[in-house]
Automatic annotation (TrEMBL):
Transmembrane segments: none
Identification of the protein by name: CBS domain-containing protein
Gene3D superfamilies: CBS-domain, Hotdog Thioesterase, HprK N-terminal domain-like, Winged helix-like DNA-binding domain superfamily/Winged helix DNA-binding domain
Highest rank taxon of the organism: Bacteria
The entry's keywords: CBS domain
Organism encoding this protein: Lysinibacillus composti
Pfam families assigned: 4HBT (PF03061), CBS (PF00571), DRTGG (PF07085)
Keyword field contains Transferase: no
Domain CBS: 197-254, 256-318
SMART domains attached to this UniProt entry: CBS
Protein's UniProt keywords contain RNA-binding: no
């Protein structure tokens, strides 16, 4: 049975793209309090089902698929550039394919402007009109206005005209950054991408018995099951270990693990895998904010997904990628890594930042473990004994030493040199992600 929160989200998702909604309208339509409606609308915004714009309202926008997440809607553009909508509000839900900077003659601009584009231009009224006629939206920089005729045309064609006080370069940079962030998000695997939904999840009710567990175990060959109420609220987990030596008629509620570890749809697969290894569990239930079961994920699902993700090309460049690009592996037998400090990796004093330094050591540690054929690992903790200021464009040499290695953990020591001077020393504990 769905909660009020879920019913509101389902209702919002069923609305046509472009519809406007409000807290009062949702509260009246769904017969809930305005507080409940407000929380559901905020959740819908987090899920990218709607976009709220100052002085315009909240609009149902197209929910983007993972492979198409880098496309932004015009409603999102308004929020990115702190814009004001001058006309064409009914087209804010539409997505843009590309943006064009109008720093040329109008005729030349139109060669690059087509349907689904966003023309970024100053107070050039003719260019605004021509872009709308070509099927493109318009973003006017410098806080300028447009003509009343162009506003009417925008309303008629359902193509937004947006005004922003920022200059053209700043606006283009902000939009580019937003698209870039979406590309990085696209690369990150979340639980919602790989989980087994509740319809396909084998589970037990709290009033069932250990005999029911054995029957389900025989039928599915699974060794663990979530235990739920009649409303599918998660109240426990039961595994083969819990039922050893127990009477078959004993209720599951008496032997299950209460208040089990669970996670949400928006958790990253890497984070879930780390927790499963750390807690020693093979099956992780996925719940919503009201603890209602949404599905499950197994350790095998996590490992397969991580292995698959490693083989995929990345679209967005993260800090980790920037650090990796500056690493040069030396040494056939004993690993030595040479690393160049770029301006992006420095703090306000022009020395290597703490974040870049820790990322460097984590990456070197991962390479050292792969050389030992120990598979994937995550840094559990780090102790930095000391780090001296290292200026940009310095070339560092990192030498890792494995101090101790077990089936699950590896302790590693690092010496960092700038030329012949020792500039950093640290120790890290890695947790191995193995079956």
């Amino acid at each position: 049975m769905s909660t009020k929160h879920e019913k509101i989200l389902q209702y919002i998702e069923s609305l046509p793209v472009g519809d406007k909604i409000s807290v009062r309208q949702i509260a009246k339509e769904m017969q809930v309090s305005e507080g409940t409606a407000y929380r559901a609308i905020k959740e819908a915004e987090n899920r990218r089902l709607v976009s709220s714009i100052e002085r315009v309202g909240t609009i149902r926008i197209e929910k983007k698929k993972k492979e198409n997440i880098e496309r932004l809607t015009f409603a999102e553009i308004v929020n990115i550039v702190d814009g004001q909508v001058l006309g064409g509000k009914s087209g804010l839900h539409k997505s843009l394919n590309k943006f064009v900077i109008g720093a040329m003659q109008v005729e030349d601009m139109m060669r690059y402007t087509d349907a689904g584009s966003l023309l970024i231009v100053g107070n050039r009224f003719k260019a605004h009109e021509q872009a709308l006629k070509e099927g493109a939206a318009v973003l006017i920089t410098g806080g300028f206005d447009t003509t009343e005729e162009n506003k009417h045309l925008a309303d008629e064609l359902e193509l937004p005209i947006i005004s922003s006080s920022y200059d053209t370069f700043t606006v283009a940079t902000m939009i580019n950054r937003a698209i870039y962030d979406q590309l990085i998000k696209k690369d990150i695997l979340l639980i919602e991408d790989i989980y087994v939904p509740i319809e396909d999840t084998a589970m037990l009710r709290k009033e069932q018995t250990i005999n029911d567990f054995h029957q389900l175990n025989t039928r599915t060959t699974h060794g663990a099951f979530p235990v739920v109420t009649n409303n599918n609220k998660l109240i426990g987990m039961i595994t083969a270990k819990d039922v050893i030596g127990k009477d078959g008629v004993e209720p599951i509620e008496k032997v299950m693990t209460k208040h089990p570890i669970s996670t949400s749809m928006k958790t990253s697969v890497a984070s879930a895998g780390h927790r499963m290894i750390w807690e020693g569990i093979d099956l992780l239930p996925i719940v919503n904010d009201d603890s209602v079961l949404q599905g499950v994920i197994s350790r095998q699902d996590v490992l397969k997904a991580l292995q698959h993700a490693q083989r995929q090309p990345q679209h967005g460049e993260t800090i980790d990628d920037i650090v990796k690009n500056e690493m040069k592996i030396l040494g056939e037998e004993d690993l030595v890594v040479e690393f160049t400090v770029t301006p992006q990796m420095t703090n306000q004093f022009g020395a290597i930042s703490y974040g870049a330094f820790t990322t460097l050591l984590s990456e070197v540690g991962s390479i050292a473990l792969k050389r030992k054929k120990r598979g994937d690992a995550v840094a559990e903790n780090m102790t930095i004994y000391f780090i001296k200021p290292v200026q940009m464009e310095s070339i560092l040499t990192v030498i890792p030493h494995i101090l101790d290695m077990s089936r699950k953990f590896v302790k590693m020591d690092f010496d960092v040199y700038n030329g012949s001077t020792l500039v950093g020393k640290a120790m890290m504990m890695f947790q191995l992600l193995e079956r």
